[in-house]
Amino acid sequence: MTRTGSATPAAPLPDNETRRLAALHACRVLDTAAETVLDELTSLAAELCATPIALISLVDANRQWFKSRVGVTAAETPRAVSFCAHAILRDDLFVIPDATADERFATNPLVLGDPRIRFYAGAPLVTSDGYALGTLCVIDRVPRELTQAQRRTLRILGHQVVAQLELRRLGGELARNGAEYRGIIDNLEDVFYRTDMHGVLQMISPSVKRYGYQPGELIGSSVLMFYEDPPAREHMLAELSANSSVRDFELRLRVKDGTQVPASLSAHLLLGEDGTPVGVEGMVRDITGRKRAEDALQRAREELEDRVRERTAELAGMNTALRESEERYRALSELTSDYAYRFRVEPDRTLANEWVTESFLRTVGLSVEEMRSRGGWTRFIHPADWPVVTAHIETVLSTGADRCEFRFMTAAGETRWVSNHARVANSSVDGHAASVYGAARDITERRRAEEALRASETRLRGIIDQAPYSIQVFAPDGSITHVNEAWERVWQLPRSVLTGYNILHDARTRSADRVQALGRALGGECVAMPEIFYDPAEAGLQGVAHWLEIFLYPLRDHTGRVSELVVMSRDVTERKQAEDRIRQLNEELRRHTEELEQRVAERTAELAVAKEQAEAADRLKSAFLATMSHELRTPLNSIIGFTGVILQGMVGPLNDEQVKQLGMVRGSARHLLALINDVLDISKIEAGQLDVMRESFDLRGSFERTLAIARPLALAKGLALHGGVANDVDSMVGDARRVEQVMLNLITNAVKFTERGEVHVDCERRGAMLVTRVTDTGIGIKPEQMGLLFRPFRQIDSGLTRSHDGTGLGLAICKRLVEMMGGDIRAESTWGTGSTFTFTLPLRPEEGA
Description:
six-stranded antiparallel beta sheet; alpha+beta; 22 helices; 24% strand; five-stranded antiparallel beta sheet; 849 residues
């Protein structure tokens, strides 16, 4: 029976608990499915820290929920008993070397019961905003400590988990922003489209229905199918290639019914991370109405030529205003983004703000007047990016358009990133740039996600370099991208010798098994290759040959494709050499065994005869002891009886000394009778003369009778004796007298070796078995003495100075009786604290084990 003390103290709540829970729920990770990247980090933590259990534990209001787990099946446990609730209060690792020695956790149900925690180490998962969401923890069932390298590794892996959780949150926000962007696109009247560099449509807005097409039927088609005029099409493509953008290019658009409509096209190239074009994005506007108006205007101009001459000056001014208005409209319509603006170009080529969207003013936190009073828009550019912005303005004024990414500061001091696209409007009479129009898209979250990803990659590289295994990282094309320091130590070579090395080329010259394993890993499967002999000379490298255990781990990107292949190898050369030596020794042992078998055979007949003689002597001894014990009991009972008669004064009065001496005689006789009874029992058992009954009896009554017999002994020593039988246990089939004998022997032993405290006895049903436990708060048993229990004539408290009487046969008889009744008995003890003796018997022998 396991005793518990006071209730486990719960961890105090963090000062920022409300905001911490809000940050946890914002991650949208609670009660979600398992994720491979987090499971891999958890497995890596368990492996590198050499523990059977590792968890990513997120501490909610009333529970700790496991996002990833190794070594346990439970998905969550109450927060009140959580080790992690204590760990999130720390800034660094929270380590409990032995939970049973820590008053905060000694009575914790997770220590006393499954998973029986003895060692715990947790790295708090602290976000960039300072909120501890939970822990990455490792657990063992034995006391231990982490090495400095393991502590550093656990911290690094914890940072990796936080990075993944923050990337998940940022990804969710990006998805929601994308949904809003899609809503804008879906409600445009003009047709918005995106293609790859071959002109294959990847996306097109629902407004294409006005031309008779359904968006779904066009995805994957070439955009060139809409152009009716090949020379005009080639001219448009040449302009797009030369200038990276096309604006208001007029063309004839083929409608699904075969007719053509006039349209205006605006487009720009999409650039990849390396600056090369990866696609085209643009808008198509139906200008049928405008063309009709232009045709009508031309006819009117021809009919009213004389009147037009008289109004030339007036119409010139109106035409200028019309062109300027039309240019503004086109610029704003083609640049859909978060912020839009217009600048006036001053004679000194500086820009003065004329108009900006309300969304920008809300982000900055100022009105137009407040922004001007603080020195204008230039005051909000991040000082470190001002040279970039200056060059950007000059490029716009010189070439007509430019794109740029830079930072600006809000009134509250927050830094925001934007991607800016600006163009000039040459609407002045002299043809110089009069205005600059532009739009800026807020890319702060994207930048943060990119920075977090870079930091995550840096930390991961650090983990790889610190790992004790030789690790190489390859790209999907087989080229090597990283080698850790352990590789240099194992192969005694500098990493530089691997320049130009390709694992795919190397594998093709090796065995089919290696080629197959490499193909499975590149297909996304984790592959283990035990005991591979590898000589660097096979790859044209210098170095010492080794026996290796190789593990191939594919890493996936956000799309699920294999982005990198990690090859982890462990040097098992010494183990292989040891195995070879063992095989040699086994061969030598086999030869010696054959020689010994002959000698053993020669001795077998002699030993068989000796064994028969020993067994006969043992039976004779047991029979002799049983007979002699029986013969000795009769005179001893007479001595005890006559002594009692004399002590009662039935033969005359006694003085105090006579009472004392006769009391000692009776006590010694009783002790000798108990010894003879025990010898008689053990002798009958060894001689096979002791039978156990199998009949139904009232177990509860036997339990109460036994406690009633033993209670005076406990009361005489000032001990509490209590216990009970479980409600679902009433009767059992067996030998009632022997069950009571075992129970009474264990209880009297517990009372004998307990000076203060209590003795507790309980019976409960466990399947088809009855489990009885006797627990005391006595002196306990030293670990080195546990092997002496249940052995005849052996006592823990032995020697000339022992303070407790006994024959040394009681526990041996208990063990023999319990085993004869189909059960078992065992003991658990802590020196100086107490002991628990447990015996198990079948409730119904035919149902028992």
